[in-house]
Amino acid sequence: MFYILCSFLSGLLKGFEVIVDQWPEWTCILLRPESDEAVPSYFRHYYICHTRSVKAFRFFIQRPCVVNWTKPTVFTGVPYDTVPTLQEQSRKHGGQMSSLENRFMYAWTKKELPEQPPLPEGLTLTTLEPKHAAALCERWKNYRPDPALDLYMQVITQRFDSSAIVNEDGDLVAYIGMQFNGAMAMLHVDPQYRGRNLGQIVLADLTRKLLAKGKTAYGLIPTKDTSFIATSSQKLGFTWVPQGSMSWVRFVPKSAFKPMPNYSMTVASKAGAEVNKIDSDGPQQQKSSDEQMVQEQLHLTALPLSCNECSDISSEIPTISCSHMKVGIC
């Protein structure tokens, strides 16, 4: 939540508003779009919330002015122990939790910087730029199709730190970027360049950049990516932060079930596959923007640090171990 608020205060989350349960000693804080039109489509119906108390969150989320339960809603990066409360509220409002994805937080907690591996000959270490947006979209488009995905990639490559490797022709062959929540994400190495340690090179480079600026270097890894979890925590030197575990939850209101009589859910654990998708084998109809949002995959703002296959980091584990924030109280 710290880096989300930093993005908000710096103007990167235009169209959002912040509400708290009480002021100035707040316990629950939530960012939400001022309206559907005020934010890009990739942030529409998104709620970003944090709480210091599950009990306080239970009362906060029930207030009629906090969440619009008549719309499809995505709760991004909520503390894992608040999920039962969201599920309870979903049932109370006649809707369903259509998808749930849990993430572990892994962070660099050592005082020393990670060692920077050498770069193979013929390759150049650089950074991501807006011109790379098309290549990033091609890689991540199946994780969540969105008409504004290209715009999202342009924004994050322009505004946030990154690390990338290009070949002699200037082609992007490996990279890692960041997201609005301050997490490192999208670690990827092209298949033909794997086995050359490029994943570790860009991960170490971005980690060093963040630490040099006094920031926390961390990533959110899907709990099912077991081999990457093992390598990131033990081989690369990252540490699991239990209190940083988060969940991404999608709520579907009762009204959204009407055009989709056969409700089903599919789950996959890696990028490039369908993730927790609502489906229907009923007749195809022209859908409203809300209905289309129900069938979209999750989550653009939840792109993982990496997945097992595309990080190019071996699964073998070594034996040695300030602007003024306008706040509304509802």
Summarize the model shown:
24% of the residues lie in helices and 24% in strands.
Molecular shape? globular
The CATH topology annotation of the largest domain reads as Aminopeptidase
Would you report the number of β strands?
15
Mean pLDDT: 78
Low-confidence stretches: 259-302, 315-330
Alpha carbon gap, first and last residue: 20 Å
CATH level 1 name of the largest domain:
Alpha Beta
What is Rg?
A: 20 Å
Largest sheet: 9 strands, mixed
The tally of helices reads 8
* Secondary-structure element order, N to C: HEEEHEHEEHHEEEHEHEEEEHE
Overall SS class = alpha+beta
Strand content: 15-25%
Any guess at the CATH architecture of the largest domain? 3-Layer(aba) Sandwich
Describe this structure in words.
Residues 1-15 form the signal peptide. It is an enzyme of class 2 (transferase). One of its GO terms (molecular function) is glycine N-acyltransferase activity. The protein is an alpha+beta fold and 330 residues long. Helices cover 24% and strands 24% of the residues. It has two domains: 2-103 and 244-297, Aminopeptidase; 124-242, Aminopeptidase (3-Layer(aba) Sandwich), CATH 3.40.630.30. The strands form three sheets. Strands 1, 2, 3, 4, 5, 10, 11, 12 and 15 form a nine-stranded mixed beta sheet that branches. The chain has a four-stranded antiparallel beta sheet with strand order 6-7-8-9, with helices on one face. It is globular and about 60 Å long. It starts with a helix and ends with a strand.
